[in-house]
Structures are given as C-alpha cells and as structure tokens.
Amino acid sequence: MSEEALQFKNRLRRLERKHTAMSNGYRAQLRSDGLIMMTPQRKKSAISGRAVILFVLAFLAFKGFLIANIGIEGYQDRVDRLRSGNAVEAAGSWVMQIDPASELIAEKIGPVLR
C-alpha cells in the first residue's frame, strides 16, 4: 500500500476513536491561539478517592479496636487459625494480619477501653 493510503487509514482510525469517545460527551476548550477545540469528556469514576481513603482508615480503626480489645497474642492466634483454613480464610488472614498502623491505633485506643 502506498504511504498516502496508510496515512489516510491512520487518520480515519484516529477520527473514529475520537468520535466514539465524544459520544459519551464533550466540552469546548479555547486554545491560546484562539482555536476552539472539542475534547471528549472523561467518565467519572463511581468511587471517589476520598471514599477509598475513608474506607481504609475505618478498616484500620476496626482492626486497631479488635487488637486493643482482644490483645495482641489473642488476635495473632485467631489470625493464625484463619491462615490454616481454606483459600478465602487464608486471604482474610493476610488482610487481617497486624500492621504498624493498626498496632499504633490499638496502643492509643487500649487505655480508653480499659
């Protein structure tokens, strides 16, 4: 195929990709040279970053509360029992293992609980 035909096919492919992206919405942007460009609007995620951070912090606080309530040895014993279970329980034991953040939270909450 000639060079011009390849360039034409590539341009058509880019235009089709841009057209499908713009079918979800677009916005106009004014460039510094005065040209108005239509750019596709990105889809917003259903889950915000703030929600993910709040979930992780709440989960760490929950683990810290459990460690402070049960004690480090009792908590580690329960995590070890989970580790010897099936695959789902082993994955749960990996998530529930003691980490420095939850241990620090347990140290801070411990005196309040007792």
TrEMBL record:
The chain crosses the membrane at residues 51-72. It comes from the Bacteria. Keywords: Membrane, Transmembrane, Transmembrane helix. This is Uncharacterized protein.
